[in-house]
Amino acid sequence: MNRGKEIMLVVGEASGDIHGANLVKALLKRDPDLRFFGVGGEQLQQTPFEVIFSVAKLTGMGLIEVAGNIQNIWQAYRLLSRSLRTRQPSLLILIDFPEFNLRLAKIAKKLGVPVLYYVSPQVWAWRQGRIRQIAETVDTMAVVFPFEVKLYEGHKMPVHFVGHPLLDIVQVKQEREAVLRDIGLQKERPVIALLPGSRRKEIDYHLPIMVEAAVRLNRIQQTQFFCVRASTVDRTALQKTLHGAAFGIPIVEAGRYDAVNAADLVWTASGTATLETALLAKPMIVVYRVSWMTYWLARLLVNVKYISIANIIAGERIVPELVQAELTPERLVRESRSILNDGEARQRMITNLAQLRGQLGSPGAAHRVAELATSMMS
Length: 378
Description:
alpha/beta, 7-stranded parallel sheet, 6-stranded parallel sheet, 17 helices
């Protein structure tokens, strides 16, 4: 590989920031002279990556919520499209975030910059017609679920199943007792982890309900709680809502997998966190709420039965889902008591979750993607 090659990398949320950072590290092992720039967050900032726009400013949710962030999105798009033209990178790597990234891919295609897309848009869930657009603008697709391969092969598009990157990332390093001691919780009482999301709007929609449910559940049976902060969420945004509980709910920022593994139950927003929790084989309740306009638009467009990737992969409801009007403190408490107090149902959920790992390939996704990227620049 020639010296001085530059890669533009764009992520759109906290999970993409983690995958991007691991990919940068894998690429640097192949060529220490590579340079990187683009959109990143806390994880990419810990690598030799030039962040020209913060991912924290990009995170949105549904169509209506994204509209409220349009100024930041437009600012990022202008900056990145200009950078593509002026810096002419050797490769553009896009991680998920399709509505934004596919527009950049179109510009790159016109400029002759090869495009590698890592973590496919969820075309299997909604708007399969986008595959044609993807095939026109993306040179190579690296997918993380095996069932995605056929979708792209049908359009004669270069596609590679690289395995799921979380297989390398989700690891437990500390025992439960030590983790709970560090957090300040007792090992004898049930522990519930709150994972409200990685976007500010998700916090606004989910966390107040979680806190109210925590208060109600704690009145009925002695329980303890902690909240996991995603790197794209400001700590003060969490603290403000968590103070609504009559008891302390500590915030966990480091060692999130050790912390989640120490919990007896997880309340998690739908998204990457559900798969992380599944890989830890932890009983969970998946929640999601958006604006009603976004919800009804999604009902018209989405063609999957479930919202959590754990249920989608399993092809059945192995974990509860509380969506929109179903997400209330009462329902969250009721579902939680069923899981905490019914040993047989709890063990069945753990067994079902443990079986998902085998469907996600083998570890080493970042290195496989790095190999693809290297071949596209040679």
